[in-house]
Amino acid sequence: MEIIRATNYDDLCEKAAALLISQVQQKPNAVLGLATGATPTGIYQKMVADHQERGTSYAGVRTFNLDEYVGLPPEHPSSFAYYMRKQLFDRIDLPLAQTHIPSGVATDLEQECRQYEEAILAAGGIDMQILGIGMNGHIGFNEPGTPFHSVTHVVTLTESTKQANRRYFDEGETMPSHAITMGLATIMRSKRIVLLVSGKHKAPILHRLLNEPVSEDLPASILKQHSHVTVIADADAWDQ
């Protein structure tokens, strides 16, 4: 693992955005694996600013997102598809037809998972995958106990994960109980992985990741077995 210490969240976003922008500049038809949530938001803002100010083009890029809630259509404000359009896709020159997010409203979810996995392989695999990490070490929605050989699948969300994501839903709105997520084996096939860790609340899990052995009880620990992983953590996350 390559470890990069960022001074703060803005610096983390600057460093991560620079990696993604460099990847696209070096390979204009790059395949990017993208994530949602609080941590990537600042990264996408910097990518948009770079696109507007320096003209980095995403016209040939293809993207695959990690996950999506089951039951939420893409126009739902709490869906990851909506998040991606608002934060990035609608603000750069990336054709929507080249973006891929699992369909949470597919009539056959198992078939949707298979087709998503096949689409990633057909695209030649992911060149650079962005990841966050959950308080319990989950990546994507791969919770502790998820087999390392898992591919794209439907998962039942744990109570802790639902509580962590509750803030993205309106008060009184029913939180989805399931999601589609890339599996751990899917993620590990990426040519390069960038793991983002931000905030004091992530300090304990960063410490566990760096010090505990590889185990399915700590899903992110599998990243230690990847040949090209970069961990970018801000000062708060290093505050052990």
UniProtKB/TrEMBL annotation:
Single GO biological process annotation from the record: N-acetylglucosamine catabolic process
Keyword Hydrolase found: yes
Stretches assigned to the Glucosamine/galactosamine-6-phosphate isomerase domain: 10-228
Active site: D67 (proton acceptor), N136 (for ring-opening step), H138 (proton acceptor), E143 (for ring-opening step)
Keywords: Carbohydrate metabolism, Hydrolase
Superkingdom, natural source: Bacteria
GO molecular function: glucosamine-6-phosphate deaminase activity; identical protein binding
Entry EC number(s): 3.5.99.6
A single GO cellular-component term on record: cytoplasm
Pathways per UniProt: Amino-sugar metabolism; N-acetylneuraminate degradation; D-fructose 6-phosphate from N-acetylneuraminate: step 5/5
Catalysed reaction, written as an equation: alpha-D-glucosamine 6-phosphate + H2O = beta-D-fructose 6-phosphate + NH4(+)
Biological role stated in the UniProt entry: Catalyzes the reversible isomerization-deamination of glucosamine 6-phosphate (GlcN6P) to form fructose 6-phosphate (Fru6P) and ammonium ion.
Matches recorded under PANTHER family: GLUCOSAMINE-6-PHOSPHATE ISOMERASE (PTHR11280)
Similarity-based family: Belongs to the glucosamine/galactosamine-6-phosphate isomerase family. NagB subfamily.
Protein name: Glucosamine-6-phosphate deaminase
Organism: Laceyella tengchongensis
